[in-house]
Design a protein that fits this description.
The protein has helices spanning 2-6, 9-15, 20-29, 32-37, 70-73, 78-82, 90-93, 102-105, 133-136, 155-164, 174-182, 241-262, 265-288, 295-301, 310-322, 347-369, 437-447; strands spanning 58-64, 118-121, 126-129, 143-149, 192-197, 221-223, 327-332, 376-381, 385-392, 396-401, 405-411, 418-420, 422-423, 430-432, 435-436, 457-459, 462-464. By secondary structure, the chain is α/β, with parallel strands linked by helices.
C-alpha cells in the first residue's frame, strides 16, 4: 500500500503503455504515437510497399537556389526583345506583388529582352541558350515544363514552399514524406541525403530538408563535401572497434528498454541513428572516395577528388542512388540575379551556369549509360523564376517571378524530348498547361508509387499531406 501511495500521476501517464492515459495523450498529440506502433519502430527506414506499382525507385533533385532566369536559359521570347526598354502595360501588373516593390513603384518597370543567343537543339528542337551548351546536348532526354508557378515570392518561404508544400516552417519536406511513405533500400546510408555547393547555403536552412512533425528518422542528412561527410563519424583517439561496439550495444539496450515503456517513436529514431552511424563508419568513406571512379567519368562531370563542387556532388548523387538511397537533393547557390555586384546577368550568371551545366548533362548521360535513368527521376529548377521586366540596381537584373518559369525533368516514367506548357509572348503569365508546385509534388510522389492524397500524417487533429489541399498529377509528362 505504501508503494501505491508513492505513485504519482506522472508515473501513471509514463507507465500506462496501453491504458486510457496513453490513448488520450496520443489522441491529443494527433496520433503519431499510435501510428508508430503500426510500423517497424526498430527499422523506421525499412522499405515499405507503395500504394501502387512505381515507375521510379529514387529521386535526384537539383535545386538551383535563388531563382534561375528562365528568360536567359530556356524560355526564348523574341517579342520581349522587340519591346526591350518599353514600359510594361499596367494590365500585366494589376493585382500582382513582387519581392522588391520599391524598384517597381518608383518608375514603371521596363521590359528587358535577353542578350543571350538561343538555338534549337536535338530532334525535339528544344530552345536552349548559349549559357548551357552541355545541357543542349541532352535535350532529347529532358522534359521541359515552361509554365511552372508557385505562390511565394521571397527566397526562404518560397524554398520552404517548394520543399514542404507550404510557406510555414515546421512541415515535413518532400524527401521526408517519401522516406516516411516507402522507406529506403539502403541499409548503410540515410534514406534522404542533402549535398550543398556554392558560396552559401540555401535561405531557409535546415527546414528545407527537415522532417517537421514526422519522426526525425525521415529528415534529410546533410553530407559535407570534404573530409568525413558527417562530423564525429570516426572513433575518438583511444577507442577501438571493440569498445565502440560495446558502447553502442549498451546504449541500444537502454534505449530499447525505454522504448518498450513509452512507445515513443523518437526513441526508435535514436536507436536507428546510432546503428546507422555505426554502419556509416565503413559505408560513408567508401561512398565519398571518388578516386575509384574512372578518369573518363571524372572528366565527364568535371569532378576533382578532394574538392568541393557541384560537379563532385552530382557524381556523389549517382553513387548514392546506386547504393539504394531514396531521395538525394543538391542545392547550388546563387541564382539571385537582381543586378549589382555578384548578381548581374552578365559575368555572375555566366559563372553559375558554368558551375552546373557540364555536371547536370553528365549526370543525365551517366545515369543513362548505367541503366539508372530507368529507375531514377532527376529534377532541375529553383524556387521561382525571373520577371520579364528589368530591375534597376547598380546594373540591370530581374526581380523574382512566381507566375511562369521553367523546370526540367528526366528519368523513370517521364516522357523525354518534349516541352509541356508555355508562357505568354512576354514570358509573364502561363499561356497553356500551367503546372503548380503542388502538381509537381503530386507527380513526383506518383512516380514513386505514392498517392499524394493518401500519404498523410495526423497531427494536431488534422491529416496533413505534402500537397496540402491541392495538387494534380501532371499526366501529360508521364509515359
Amino acid at each position: 500500500m505504501d508503494e501505491l501511495a508513492a505513485r504519482t500521476r506522472r508515473h501513471f501517464f509514463s507507465e500506462c503503455a496501453i491504458g486510457l492515459g496513453r490513448l488520450a495523450f496520443a489522441s491529443l498529440a494527433g496520433g503519431p504515437l499510435l501510428r508508430a506502433q503500426e510500423r517497424d519502430m526498430a527499422h523506421p527506414l525499412a522499405p515499405r510497399a507503395p500504394h501502387f506499382p512505381p515507375k521510379a525507385k529514387s529521386i535526384i533533385y537539383l535545386f538551383m537556389a535563388g531563382g534561375p532566369s528562365q528568360l536567359e536559359l530556356f524560355d526564348y521570347k523574341p517579342r520581349l526583345g522587340e519591346f526591350d526598354g518599353q514600359p510594361i502595360p499596367d494590365s500585366y501588373l494589376k493585382g500582382k506583388r513582387f519581392a522588391f516593390m520599391d524598384t517597381f513603384t518608383k518608375d514603371v518597370p521596363k521590359l528587358l529582352g535577353t542578350k543571350r543567343k538561343f538555338a534549337r537543339h536535338g530532334q525535339s528542337g528544344a530552345w536552349v541558350s548559349e549559357l548551357f551548351p552541355h545541357t543542349a546536348g541532352v535535350v532529347d532526354q529532358l522534359c521541359f515544363l515552361k509554365a511552372v508557378s508557385t505562390e511565394v515570392f521571397n527566397h526562404a518561404p518560397a524554398k520552404i514552399f517548394c520543399n514542404t508544400g507550404t510557406f510555414q516552417f515546421g512541415r515535413p519536406s518532400m524527401g521526408a514524406w517519401v522516406t516516411y511513405g516507402i522507406g529506403s533500400e539502403s541499409q548503410d546510408l540515410p534514406g534522404f541525403v542533402v549535398l550543398q555547393s556554392g558560396p552559401r547555403g540555401p535561405r531557409g536552412g535546415a527546414p528545407n530538408w527537415g522532417s517537421g512533425f514526422l519522426p526525425t528518422a525521415y529528415q534529410g542528412v546533410p553530407f559535407r563535401a570534404v573530409g568525413d561527410p558527417i562530423l564525429d563519424l570516426r572513433n575518438p583517439a583511444g577507442i577501438d572497434a571493440r569498445r565502440q561496439a560495446e558502447a553502442v550495444a549498451a546504449i541500444r539496450d537502454l534505449n530499447s528498454a525505454r522504448l518498450a515503456d513509452t512507445g515513443d517513436s523518437e526513441i526508435a529514431t535514436r536507436i536507428a541513428s546510432y546503428e546507422m552511424a555505426y554502419r556509416m563508419q565503413t559505408s560513408a568513406p567508401e561512398l565519398m572516395d571518388i578516386t575509384k571512379e574512372s578518369k573518363a567519368t571524372l572528366e565527364l562531370y568535371g569532378a576533382e577528388p578532394g574538392g568541393s563542387s557541384f560537379a563532385n556532388n552530382c557524381l556523389l548523387a549517382r553513387r548514392l542512388v546506386e547504393r539504394g538511397v531514396r531521395f538525394v537533393q543538391l542545392y547550388h547557390t546563387s541564382w539571385d540575379h537582381h543586378g549589382g555586384p555578384g548578381e548581374d546577368l552578365d559575368a555572375s550568371l555566366e559563372k553559375v551556369c558554368k558551375d552546373v551545366d557540364q555536371a547536370c548533362a553528365a549526370l543525365v548521360r551517366d545515369l543513362g549509360a548505367r541503366g539508372l535513368l530507368d529507375s531514377t527521376v532527376v529534377v532541375w529548377g529553383g524556387e521561382f523564376g525571373r520577371t520579364p521586366m528589368g530591375e534597376k540596381r547598380e546594373s540591370t537584373g530581374r526581380n523574382h517571378h512566381i507566375d511562369a518559369y521553367t523546370m526540367w525533368l528526366t528519368g523513370a516514367g517521364i516522357r523525354r524530348g518534349i516541352t509541356v506548357g508555355a508562357s505568354d509572348e512576354l514570358g509573364f503569365s502561363p499561356a497553356e498547361d500551367r503546372v503548380h508546385v503542388h502538381d509537381l509534388q503530386a507527380t513526383l510522389l506518383h512516380l514513386l508509387g505514392l498517392d499524394h492524397q493518401r500519404l498523410t500524417f495526423r497531427f494536431m487533429g488534422r491529416d496533413f499531406r505534402l500537397t496540402d489541399v491541392g495538387g494534380n498529377v501532371a499526366t501529360k509528362i508521364l509515359t
